[in-house]
Design a protein that fits this description.
36% helix; 25 strands; alpha+beta; eight-stranded mixed sheet; six-stranded mixed sheet; single chain
Length: 729
Amino acid sequence: MKKGIALLLALALCCAGMAGAAAAETYTASAQGFGGQVSVTLTIDGDKLTDVTVEGTNETEGVGSRAIDTLPAAMVAAGTVEVEAVSGATVTSNAIKEAAAAALAQSGVALTAQEVDLTQNMTPGTYYGEAYGKWKEGTIEGERFGSPAIITPTKVAVTVDETSILSVEVLETSDNAGFIDPVIEQIPAAIVADQSIAVDVITGATMTSQAVLSGVAQALEQAGGNMVAFNIAKEHEPAPDEEFTCDTVVVGAGGSGTTAALRLVTQGQDVIILEKTGLVGGESTCSTGAMTYGSLRWIEEYGEENLVSYDELFQEMMNWTNWRADSTVVRSFLSNNGAAADFLQDHWDQTDNPGFGKLAPMDKNGMDTGKGVAKYTVLYDQFIIPQGGRLMLETTGEQLIVEDGAVKGVIASRKDGSKVTVHADNVILATGGYAGNKEMVEEYLHTDSYYLYGLSTNTGDGLRMALEAGATLCSELAPHLAEFCSNPNVDFYAGYMKFINYTGLLQVTGEGKRFYNEEYGAKEPLSIGASALYAQKYAYAIFTQADMDKMIEGGGAAMLSEEVRAEMNNYRDRACVPFYTLEAEMQAAIDAGEGWKADTLEELGAQIGFDPQVFSQTIADYKEAVASGVDTEFGKRPEMLFPIDEGPFYAVRICPAFDGTLNGIRVNSDMQALNAGLEPIPGLYMGGYDAGGLWAHPYYQTTHTNAVTQGFALTSGYIAANHILSQAQ
């Protein structure tokens, strides 16, 4: 009898255990992340969260991926989906939290939060970790910014005892000089001080910051660290609010803001510069050179007899825009362009920075400064700050102070949430346009399919503040298109896939239909190629295995003869080297659902989702053009009508790439912001991408212009400063 009771009891316990196991349920939901959908699956047993998994294949490696790696364990340890975002990966973190909350709502369960174990029991010693930052393995772009030709990971050393982090050292990095400096100065010290890797990244150097944090995380894991505890941010008291008064406050320390500040402080003005990132230079650090029409240095080198006349250049620029540009702004730019360049060079000549060290071809009226931060940091270190200018980094302008219709200063906030109020007679807004603000881009440029080559921190702060103060937008808002193609979900920037448009390969729309002469992707990449792609939002480049092999072997030079390339004035030499990363890039695109491979063109079209009748006709027409050597549809030259008879076949989705945005607030010839009645708003000036009037789509690609964006950035700051000085006399 007792044996029977024992058996029944055992069966009952077993069934209870089975019932308990069955009670554990999974719930899945998704939310929009930075690069695409992020999916979160929660496993809930009773009122306990027992497991969290996250999938987000299109989130940025080294940034969003840190949130994907970190937040699941934090949620399980805390027993709740309400955890802190990963610094520098806010978009992905918020997507994970939103999806987790939606999954939890499906369950109907009220989770019971639990106390997180914060104890550490590490093995003392020094441990090492490494991760790629701004530049990934195999990149071809880093060298253009002063990084090594062969990119290696950022390496760190972390020394610990049983319970704490004793030191963090950055041993090696391939990331850009200037960008890595504030990271090295601030992040290791913050990790040791907070005993946490949940420290703030350096705004504007997010990927470099994340490389250091990823390396430190690896080292701490090797030491046996409690990573949930190390990923909890320490609470900090915000700095006290501060209030200042000066003559002029400059918002944005890029090329335009820096030139304005330098001009003003050298003439005795009291100037405060507010910069939302942790370093100076802004979008101008990405620029190689600038238009410098009329510069004395240019004239000394090439001779005044070779300087195109002012009237000819003015007419050339206005005719390019079909007079949609503001002629008064164009005249002001040309009248001051050379003087602004000479002003800057006079200061660079007093430093070890060459400044404008190389001249563009004679007919292009420009000079080369090289990429990077150094050309601007030297101006702050040796002139602006020593002469009384105050630079406030990681301080974001948020609202203009307006009194009786005049702008009288700026209210800003620091990263810790504290407020900075600056009272000033003049405000120059030079915040870099709005290309980093997806909502603004969709509203003003009517596209959601693009890749940003420029700075994601340029989020339209200046435009928003000016509009709130009564300024009016320019009628010609346009993208500053790059001459390369890209993809919204796969990074083509670091490799060679961005040059796919330089080959003239077949391109079709989402329906499967040709839409332009692909020759222009190589021949006129900015004025026509990029513009045609922008008009379609995205397209598909189609090629064969034979094409792939040729490009891997010799890039554009293997596809197009020297004679053909010589006839294309704007063909880039950088596209004439072996595309040795192309196969790996193609596989990455396939893995992300942005590339396709098939044995037949019919199968390829079906995979992508083309209209079969449209695509079939497109292929038939194109094959006929190849066979006859005559493109009756678009007039493509026969040398670029490549055969598409033998597979395997490939396709990759391409979209426009933006460096930034052209035109912003309407200004007059003195860079004063204009209201709806086109009257100057007293005390308010615009510079660089924030200033409107010089542009009309597409970007200038005329006989005598070169690097107009950077030229205008520097010159607009110079013009604004000169007008402020004239009003102070």
